[in-house]
């Protein structure tokens, strides 16, 4: 059977099992009309006619939209086979016919009048069944403090970008609390088990327990309410929400109630000791396993309903207790059996990260044991990091199980310009054409969002394309024109430079995890190499500043100017660090003081001021979202500390230090800059006193600074301050000439 036919057959199997065509056409059309009114306002929205008809996809069975009409006195007609398809068609019209841009950082929606006509009726069908969105970690790195207003914006963004499959994992701890109480645990035991809000993603995957908890009772109530609204809105568009299922991890306290149960304590995770990790895994043969699994899923679906796709990850970044295929097959089959005991139509969505993360453990026999333990078509695998390290290639397309080609792109929600756009552009087509391919969709699975929007714009578009974009240079030029609402030569040239540099990472070493010295605890062994020519970033900075007379009124342009200025400063920090390190190793005090002084006392404070000029780069906003989620001042302080810890120490002892680093105004000034000042002062003292630099002692002193920041209650502005263009120009005029002259 040809590759495309195999994928289509599996797609239809999943389509049937998931009840993908269920739902009310009128309700989905109404949801898209309401989205349109929120996006454009009621007046402009009246110029569009939106309808949903399943019959549009009768031939292919795949989401399809049709555009027609427009022009003088005529409404634009948008027809979709689902609400999501109609929303994607609407987005296509706004993007390609009106030059509009929808983005996290703010949309550019200036409509031409009259609305342009669609010259010929345009019908487009997606090449695959699914367009997936989210990573389990996104729930903690980006969504954790969101209210309904912010969720509404995100679901609108999802619909416009054609997303029809997404995690919906809020509120599950409230369901688990009911299950644990029914099993005989005390409220105290339950409270001791759950992590704090900012770390729930890793509690849900069994990596952590207890750390930074407990969850207040109000948390459960608010998350239940939020989950109902999220599900209602997602379903109104015809999206398929993925609910959680039981993966096998249980609280240790369960052994008090059932002392004879067969459990295995897993190894530690993320440099945490067993006070917070080393989770307990229920043996697949234990009779309590199906009881716990069915209790949870029954209570969950009773509360929230179901769309029959469930996520569970038993061995995420944790080595199984046995490599025997028989054990791995039993552990996998038991999770699935607990699902179908409650929902006979259940499909298991599995993050394929485990196969990529520990390839030395997951050999062909081990991978085969997992993939073969679930009936074919009932396990849907996310090839999570396919743009860099695709697993489908070395597993014969997941041995016949359907998979979704995912772009992971971002780790920890870090800031930092990064992308592998060429790999992203060509990857889905290559996977679709792979021999006997079982690919059934594309996906975006970042750990954190709100960064590098060009990457996500491309990936979302590829979900509707059968072939790669032919000319990425032309594509990114059009992206810039739509984003800013006007074509500008200098801005577009800047974007082409970024495309060939920061967005042109290639090979297995590409990872969207910012390891710049700026956001790392300093040492004398820091890596500063990058995969691109730094001069491209500095030149793009110059070109964006040259465009300010025309584009400074565009909020998206000002956001990008801050982001590129931030990146330029990041490059300069690396260069000044190299100078300071060389001076120290050569025992040259004056050059050390000069380079160290510029880095710690000039560059970083100037960066903080630039970041403070844009609402998307404020620590104050980040922390305020956490505080607003609380119902008391005590809760507000608790949530704020959760948030501060995740951004920095990520554990009681800096266990995953700076993994979730961000470049935010306030965080640079009060966390990164003091650490760099301490480092440079320690190096100077070392030379003056003639004593060796002791990294271990510096780490202890730095930890005191880091911990002080986490425990601080200082409030930060949640509104931007200062003029972005003016601040960026001052930085540029001070440092760009030095860079050109080679005299930093």
Structural topology:
Blueprint: H1 3-18, H2 25-40, H3 42-45, E1 48-52, E2 64-69, E3 76-80, H4 83-96, E4 122-125, E5 130-133, H5 138-141, H6 148-160, E6 165-167, H7 172-183, H8 187-193, H9 200-204, H10 217-236, E7 240-244, E8 249-250, H11 254-257, E9 263-265, E10 280-282, H12 288-304, E11 309-311, H13 325-342, E12 347-351, H14 353-357, H15 364-371, E13 379-383, H16 396-399, E14 403-407, H17 421-432, E15 439-444, H18 453-462, H19 472-484, H20 489-500, H21 534-546, H22 548-551, H23 555-585, H24 589-611, H25 619-628, H26 633-647, H27 667-689, H28 695-711, H29 724-741
The largest beta-sheet arranges its strands as 5-6-7-11-12-13-14-15
Q: Span from first to last CA?
A: 62 Å
Q: How helical, in percent, are the residues?
A: 40-55%
Regions with pLDDT < 50 over 5+ consecutive residues? 1-5, 12-22
The average pLDDT is: 95
Radius of gyration over all CA atoms, rounded:
26 Å
The tally of strands reads: 15
Strand content: 5-15%
**Overall spatial form:** globular
What characterizes the major β-sheet?
8 strands, parallel, barrel
Jot down its keywords:
hydrolase, signal, eight-stranded parallel beta barrel, four-stranded mixed sheet, alpha/beta, 49% helix, 29 helices, disordered N terminus, NAGLU, alpha-N-acetylglucosaminidase activity
């Amino acid at each position: 059977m040809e590759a495309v036919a195999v994928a289509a057959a599996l797609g239809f199997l999943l389509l049937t099992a998931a009840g993908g065509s269920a739902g009310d056409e009128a309700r989905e059309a109404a949801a898209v009309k309401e989205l349109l009114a929120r996006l454009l306002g009621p007046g402009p929205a009246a110029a569009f006619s939106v309808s949903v008809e399943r019959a549009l996809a009768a031939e292919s069975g795949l989401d399809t939209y049709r555009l027609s009409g427009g022009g003088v006195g005529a409404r634009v007609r948008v027809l979709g086979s689902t609400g999501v398809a109609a929303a994607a068609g609407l987005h296509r019209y706004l993007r390609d016919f009106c030059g509009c841009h929808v983005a996290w950082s703010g949309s550019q929606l200036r409509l031409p009048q009259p609305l342009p006509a669609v010259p010929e009726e345009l019908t487009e069908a997606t090449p695959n069944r699914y367009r997936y969105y989210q990573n389990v970690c996104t729930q903690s790195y980006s969504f954790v403090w969101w209210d309904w207003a912010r969720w509404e914006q995100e679901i609108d963004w999802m619909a416009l970008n054609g997303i029809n499959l997404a995690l919906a994992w809020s509120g599950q701890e409230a369901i688990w609390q009911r299950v644990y109480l029914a099993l005989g645990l005390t409220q105290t035991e339950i409270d001791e088990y759950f992590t704090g809000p900012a770390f729930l993603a890793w509690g849900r995957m069994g990596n952590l327990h207890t750390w930074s908890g407990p969850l207040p009772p109000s948390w459960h109530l608010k998350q239940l309410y939020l989950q109902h609204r999220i599900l209602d809105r997602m379903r109104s568009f015809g999206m398929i929400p993925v609910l959680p299922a039981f993966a096998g991890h249980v609280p240790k306290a369960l052994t008090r109630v059932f002392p004879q149960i067969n459990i295995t304590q897993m190894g530690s995770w993320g440099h945490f000791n067993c006070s917070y990790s080393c989770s307990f895994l229920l043996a697949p043969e234990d009779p309590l396993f199906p009881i716990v699994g069915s209790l949870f899923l029954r209570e969950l679906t009773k509360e929230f309903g179901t769309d029959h796709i469930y996520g569970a990850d038993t061995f995420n970044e944790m080595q199984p207790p046995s490599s025997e295929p028989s054990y791995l097959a039993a552990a996998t089959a038991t999770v699935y059996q607990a699902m179908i005991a409650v929902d006979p139509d259940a499909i298991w969505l599995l993050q394929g990260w485990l196969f990529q993360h520990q390839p030395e453990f997951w050999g062909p026999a081990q991978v085969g044991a997992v993939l073969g333990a679930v009936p074919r078509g009932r396990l849907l695998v996310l090839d999570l990091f396919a743009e860099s390290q695709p697993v489908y290639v070395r597993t014969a397309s997941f041995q016949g199980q359907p998979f979704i080609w995912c772009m992971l792109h971002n780790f920890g929600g870090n800031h930092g310009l990064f992308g592998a756009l060429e790999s992203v552009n060509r990857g889905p087509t290559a996977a679709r054409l792979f021999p006997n391919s079982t690919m059934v969709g594309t996906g975006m699975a970042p750990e954190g969002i709100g960064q590098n929007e060009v990457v996500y714009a491309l990936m979302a578009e590829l979900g509707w394309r059968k072939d790669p974009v032919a000319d990425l240079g032309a594509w990114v030029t059009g992206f810039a024109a739509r984003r800013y609402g006007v074509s500008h030569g200098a801005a577009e040239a800047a974007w082409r430079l970024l495309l060939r540099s920061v967005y042109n990472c290639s090979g297995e070493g590409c990872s969207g995890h910012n390891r710049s010295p700026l956001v790392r605890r300093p040492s004398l062994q820091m890596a500063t190499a990058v995969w691109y020519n730094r001069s491209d970033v500095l030149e793009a900075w110059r070109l964006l500043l040259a465009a300010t007379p025309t584009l400074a009124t565009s909020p998206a342009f000002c956001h990008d100017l801050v982001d590129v200025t931030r990146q330029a400063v990041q490059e300069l920090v690396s260069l000044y660090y190299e100078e300071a390190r060389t001076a120290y190793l050569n025992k040259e005090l004056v050059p050390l003081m000069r380079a160290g002084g510029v880095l710690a006392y000039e560059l970083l404070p100037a960066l903080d001021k630039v970041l403070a000029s844009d609402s998307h780069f404020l620590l104050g906003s980040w922390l305020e979202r956490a505080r607003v989620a609380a119902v008391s001042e005590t809760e507000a302080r608790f949530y704020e500390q959760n948030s501060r810890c995740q951004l920095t120490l990520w554990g009681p002892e800096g266990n995953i230090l700076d993994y979730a680093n961000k470049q935010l105004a306030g965080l640079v000034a009060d966390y990164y800059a003091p650490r760099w000042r301490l480092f440079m002062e320690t190096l100077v003292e070392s030379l003056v006193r003639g004593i060796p630099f002791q990294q271990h002692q510096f780490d202890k002193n730095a930890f005191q600074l880091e911990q002080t920041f986490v425990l601080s209650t200082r409030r930060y502005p949640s509104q931007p301050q200062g003029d972005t263009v003016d601040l960026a120009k001052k930085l540029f005029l001070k440092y760009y000439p030095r860079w050109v002259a080679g005299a930093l």
